[in-house]
Amino acid sequence: MPYFDYAATTPCDARVLETIADHARMPLNASSVHQMGQRARRLLTEARERLAGCLGVTDPAWIVFTSGATEAVNLALRGYQETLGRRMRVLSSPIEHACVTDTLAALAEHGRADVERLAVVPSGRLLMPETLRDPIDLLCIMHANNETGVIQDVTTARDFARDNGIVWLCDASQSLGKIPLDLGVLGADWTVVSSHKVYGPTGVGCLIGPAVKRLESQLTGGPQEDERRAGTQAVALILGFVRAVELAIADMESRRAHLDHLEHVFFDRLDQAGVVWRRNGEAPFLPGFFNVTFDNAAEAMDAVIALDQMGFQVSPGSACSTGVVSISPVLEAMYPGDCVRAAGGVRVTFGKDTAEREVFALADAIIKLWKKG
Ligand code: PLP
Fold this sequence. Notes:
Bound molecules: pyridoxal-5'-phosphate
Strand content: 5-15%
Structural class: alpha/beta
Radius of gyration: 21 Å
Number of helices: 13
Number of strands: 12
Strand order of the largest sheet: 1-9-8-7-6-2-3
Shape: globular
Helix content: 40-55%
């Protein structure tokens, strides 16, 4: 069945699966003292060094492997609040992933954080304040949005954080592997990435940054990950993750060219059939990633269900909000008062293995639905 939801998750690359299988066969516990344990430790150290090399990370010890981006965000937000030992003052945005917004909401509910939100404009970009009314401890601004694919102005975010002496948590889960990501240049105190968005296995990701040492661990147990994340490391998955990142970086240009081509033929086909569509947000976008509201907009969920019944898998927004039929808070924040636009946004994301004929078939299915009205 043609799949157009690569922003939700990607299939594991065959070469990555091989790496995982080669290592999952072995009893690799990096905390064991015997030779197999030593081997696991060596593999883990190498994996950390290779990932640091891929992402411009100065010190491999700044990487804390977790089960994914959600856990990494929880470690950063909850861990930093505990380190501060008081109510944390946070400046966040209305377009963050639920793992950020819901964790901040939970901290606020328990009197552990005060959260202010930046404004977002219709381009999907955040407006940085000229000055700060009150002191802020933490800035939460993502790298690229998971519903629209809009890439944020991260240089301005970095300068703002530096000028105001604020630590910055940057969720780069959607950017990793799709656009160049050099964490030395990015300059966030903590960056979050996830393996299953980049053709790696599900169940692994990491929190990276010079400030990881400033976090209270959120799991009790063993001293793994420099006492930042208790629990036996998933060595085979971590090796698969690192391999997936290496492949994504090596193939980035050709993947991008392929995705740009697919996007071009997709919109061309819709235009030729006279379909009227509005792309939500403004460039720069992640490649092969778009959120579109059609002119005679059915509710996004209806369109997604109709397309699913025709064999095409797209998304009404972020996968994490599936099942709850509500207007996307991201589009709502971008287009306040324009319910039709916000409710009709359909997210389509292409992947490295998406074929041109699949894209034509999707466009034709949309044209058919659009003509039906
Ligand atoms: N952050 C963003 C921007 C995402 O798109 C996602 C996944 O949808 C996450 C965080 C959560 O990632 P994980 O599934 O690794 O917990």
